Every structure is written in structure tokens, then in C-alpha cells.
Amino acid sequence: MPRCPWCGDDPIYVAYHDQEWGVPLRDDRALFEKLILDGFQAGLSWITVLRKRDNFISAFDGFEPQIISNYDEAKIQSLMQDAGIIRNQAKIRATVNNAQAYLRIQEEGSFSEYLWAFVGGRPIINKLKDESDYRSTSPESDAMSKGLKSKGFKFVGSTICYAFMQAVGMVNDHLMDCPRWDELRKEYS
Q: How far apart are CA 108 and CA 159, in angstroms?
């Protein structure tokens, strides 16, 4: 099957491309997990995060915001010693902060509805012909970044938000000759 070239032939990356990337995700906790993992990707390649994803899930208590929001200094230092994750203190501390911000948003309503509102509740279907058409931000990711920062989130710049939007199906950025582009476009209808 022809695919978007960014996934190459690494089996982990191919499975991610074929089964997850661009599929609309609306579960609050799953969206929180994905946003956190995208923050950990900053400055690294996504395959690095994918290879450590299971370790992240275990180390961060299944990405349960209620638990993470109560992490103390001992837990943060324990995470800093965990070779199974990306050991970046600023990103680990931001995760605790973001769990607290997530819970504040949930007091007002659904995290999913909050995030999906930045794309009007429906996926944006781009018509990309080749890799030169890819972009790293959009007006929607700019707005999401600004909105999340106003709610207290960290590691949510526009580039991170755009990568997140692509991953969770808010934006269909599969190339048009990739079968997933049409499969997902039909799924949105």
C-alpha cells in the first residue's frame, strides 16, 4: 500500500500511520495522553516517543489526570530516573501542571469538546499532493495554543498543537494518494 512517506518502513511507524494517525479521537483522557506525548516529542522525532509509549503509559499511571495532578517531588524525581521515558524535568513538571489544567477545564465541561471547538467540531480535510505541502502550524493550531496557554497548559506551542491535531484526526493531512486520506475522508462524512 502506498503511504505517506514520513512513516518510512519502520513497523512501529507504519502501524501508527495505518491505524492511528488522523483517526478522529474524542475521548477526554486519550486526548490528554496524546497532548502530553506530543509535548514530550518537542525537539525529538515522533518515533522516539512511539518506541517509549508503553513505558510512558506505565510511568504516568495510565495518563490519569486525577493521579498525575497529585504527583509530588518524590514522584517527579523517580520519573527523572526512569530510562524508559524521556527524562526531561521541564516536560515532566509540565505534565503535572497540565493534568491540573485539564481538571480545571473538565470542571467547565468536556476536554474533547473544548479542543474540537478549535476546528468547529469537524475534521479539516486538507488536499496535500506531496511532502512540500505539509505545514507545521495553522490558524487553528495558533488559536488552540493560545487557548490552552490561557488555561495554564505548558508545552503547547502552535507546532505541537498542529502535530496533535493531525494525530487525533482534527486535520486530515494524509497525502491524497495515500489510501488513508480517502478512508478517513469517507469516515468523516
A: 26
